[in-house]
Design a protein that fits this description.
Blueprint (H helix, E strand, L loop, with lengths): L2 H33 L2 H13 L8 H6 L3 E6 L6 E8 L2 E8 L12 H9 L9 H16 L5 H12 L9 H11 L2 H8 L9 E5 L2 E5 L3 E2 L16 H11 L3 H18 L7 E3 L7 E3 L5 E3 L5 E3 H8 L11 E2 L3 E2 L2 E2 L4 E2 L7 H13 L5 H15 L9 H19 L6
Antiparallel strand pairs: 1-2, 2-3, 3-5, 4-5, 6-8, 7-10, 8-9, 11-12, 13-14
Helix pairs in contact: 2-4, 5-6, 6-7, 10-12, 10-14, 12-13, 13-14
């Protein structure tokens, strides 16, 4: 007598499973279609290349010889297209900015509008001297008036002259100027040779490629893609400990992250602020050397100050650049101040508390926890903590290095 009832229950559960699966597949497809529009990037870039408007070391292989292979879509926002790929026999990351105005609905009007927006400078008749001054002025506005900027301008001009003919054509100048408008490209150029940002390999217009695809340290990175949306966030951290790198490897990655924070603090091209401090941006190579996975939310001090200074506010939350670069609000004047409240190191140490303490060696856990807590509570204006900042950072690096030195993990 129970069989018909059981059959109904099973049929209902199967129907519910099919419905849930179909809904997940639809959501996944919709998200993928919106986020992954690399084909639009290729069409637009190659259209501009064939018209002679842009150029670059990647253009011929990308647009004429079809020797750039686009693989997995890694985009997190529609406006920044990111793909893993293969070029000249090496693994690369392909990055292409896609403005919101260049939606799939734009149709035939896509290329002309992009040409006007991105590739309108410099104009015809600009001399190399004028372009040098134009680039220097742009870098001063974005990085500050630093004595090291002429050397960076030299790097820009060398990159523009990719064919090494000792001249910069209009197409080359338009391409490198468009690249400079990309925040991450400007930072990659500033941090080249430091070892914690992926090396630039080539470009075409404002599309560029960097070396490899850093593995993410985020909790979701260790999970199969199909399982990530199905599991609650509370389980992600535990699974990261089981499936992620062993603790000594995590310590090595953490040391690299701390060195990166040092590079951002009064480096050759000024100070930079990390304005989205999450594990998703902490990447590493096959040898567990730290690589910053995403520089989109690392901003020059000059740009952050320009954004915040004089901005209307009612409370401190109104004085936020990016996700977590926050300045005080002057409640009397109702204007944001230019200095940030929390330095890079404090935000990174809060991140490392969740990344390093689980699974840490028993003899190290108490001291490591104490130092990370001290570090995470660093406060005061970011520009006023230099001495304490350096001391705390040095102690942390020494503590971690002593634990893994003279082992296979170094």
């Amino acid at each position: 007598g129970r069989l018909p009832g059981l059959r109904v229950k099973y049929v209902f559960l199967v129907w519910l499973g099919v419905l849930a699966g179909s809904w997940l597949a639809y959501v996944h497809y919709s998200s993928y279609a919106e986020l992954c529009r690399g084909h639009v990037c290729r069409v637009v870039i190659c259209d501009q290349y064939h018209k002679g408007i842009i150029s670059g070391s990647l253009c011929q292989d990308l647009c004429s010889l079809q020797q750039v292979e686009w693989r997995t879509c890694l985009s997190s926002v529609p406006g920044q297209q990111v793909y893993s790929g293969l070029w000249q026999g090496r693994e690369v990351t392909i990055k292409c900015g896609l403005e919101e105005s260049l939606s799939l609905k734009a149709g035939a009007d896509v290329a002309p509008r992009r040409e006007l927006v991105l590739f309108d400078k410099p104009t015809r008749g600009t001399s190399i001297k004028e372009f040098r001054e134009m680039t220097l002025s742009f870098l001063k506005a974005n990085l500050g008036d630093l004595p090291s900027l002429p050397a960076l301008v030299g790097q820009v001009l060398l990159m523009a002259d990719f064919n090494k003919d000792s001249r910069v054509s209009l197409a080359e100048a338009k391409s490198v100027w468009a690249l400079l408008q990309r925040n991450e490209f400007l930072l990659l150029l500033s941090l080249q040779g430091k070892g914690h940002a992926s090396p630039l390999l080539g470009h075409c217009g404002d599309l560029y490629v960097t070396e490899g695809v850093p593995r993410s340290s985020g909790p979701a990175a260790a999970l199969p893609a199909l399982l990530r949306p199905l599991l609650p966030p509370a389980l992600h951290g535990a699974l990261q400990q089981w499936l992620g790198p062993a603790w000594p490897w995590r310590a090595k990655i953490a040391i690299g992250l701390l060195e990166f924070v040092e590079e951002l603090f009064h480096g050759a091209y000024g100070t930079f602020y990390m304005c989205e401090t999450t594990l998703a941006n902490v990447g590493y190579t096959a040898k567990y050397d730290f690589r910053m996975a995403d520089l989109q939310q690392v901003a020059p001090e000059a740009a952050v100050r320009r954004f915040l200074r004089g901005r209307h506010c009612e409370r401190s939350a109104d004085c936020t650049y990016g996700r977590d670069c926050r300045a005080p609000c002057d409640t009397l004047l109702r204007q944001c101040k230019g200095d940030l409240v929390q330095p890079n190191l404090a935000k990174v140490c809060e991140l490392l508390r969740h990344y390093l303490l689980p699974g840490a060696p028993a003899g190290l856990r108490a001291e490591l926890g104490r130092q990370l807590r001290t570090c995470a509570t660093l406060s005061g204006l970011a520009s006023q903590v230099e001495a304490h900042h350096s001391l705390v950072l040095s102690h942390l690096k020494t503590l971690l290095w002593k634990e893994i030195s003279n082992t296979k993990y170094t």
